[in-house]
Every structure is written in C-alpha cells, then in structure tokens.
Amino acid sequence: MNTLNYLDIKLEQTSKEKVVLTMMVDDKHLQPFGLMHGGINAVLIETATSIGANDSLDTTKQVAVGLDLQVNHLKSAVKGDSLTITATPNHIGKMTQVWQAVITNQTQQKISVGRCTLMVKTRD
User: Fold this and answer.
1) Residues forming the active site
2) What's the burial of 85, exposed, middle or buried (CB within 10 Å: 0-12/13-18/19+)?
3) Which domains does the chain have, with CATH numbers?
4) Which residues form the Thioesterase domain (predicted)?
5) Whole-prediction pTM
6) Which CA distances in Å does 100 have to 61, 68, 73, 85, 92?
7) Listed residue (95, 80, 90) closest to 23, CA to CA
8) Dihedral angle, C-alpha 35, 38, 39, 42, nearest 10 °
9) pLDDT digits (tens, 9 = 90+) for 80-113
C-alpha cells in the first residue's frame, strides 16, 4: 500500500505548473490530543511538490526526490476537516527544483505552508 492510499489523499489536479490534493482528516491522521499530527502537513507538502516536480521530468530517465523540506504549522486541523493542498513551482532547473505549497481547510484558512527543494536524479 502506498502513502496516498493509506492516508486517503486524493489527486485533484496534477501538472508541472500546479498540483492540487485533498484529504479529509480522520482518526489515522490524529495525534493523542485529537489534533492532526504535524507530520501529516509535511507528508502532504512533500507529496504534492514531488508529484509536480516529477511531472516536469521524463521519469523513465530521471526522478525528483526531496532534498530539503520546510514546514510552518499555522492552525490546527481536527477530525472532519477537509484539507486542500496546492503546490506550485518557484524554480525548475536541470539539477534541482524548488516548490511551495499551501494547505487550507474547508473555510479557506491556512493550516500550513511549506517549501520543498528536490534533487533531480538520473535513474540507473
């Protein structure tokens, strides 16, 4: 089982210009105090940015993998919240890519923001 399936992350839009994912917060996303675990924000941001970065590559020859991830948690999310993750590129280079992502809830409040630097690797 992959991360998208396990965490019930849905692909809404994918391209080399923009990636949009959605996820409904459920019990499996929570930490013991009933709030969504901050690591889920990191997973969502790196997932969205990685999908976008790889859409700009011929993945039979190259793959983009996370090199650095920065996440700021801005607001708590709880069970039943509907999250939208939107990622866009800041830089698409031959060896690295830099993407930013914003996670919002159903009322358009920002839950988290982040940036991911990805390294472009040649497949063996």
Assistant:
1) 46
2) buried
3) 3-122 (3.10.129.10)
4) 33-110
5) 0.95
6) 24, 12, 14, 10, 12
7) 80
8) 130
9) 999 999 999 999 999 999 999 999 999 999 999 9
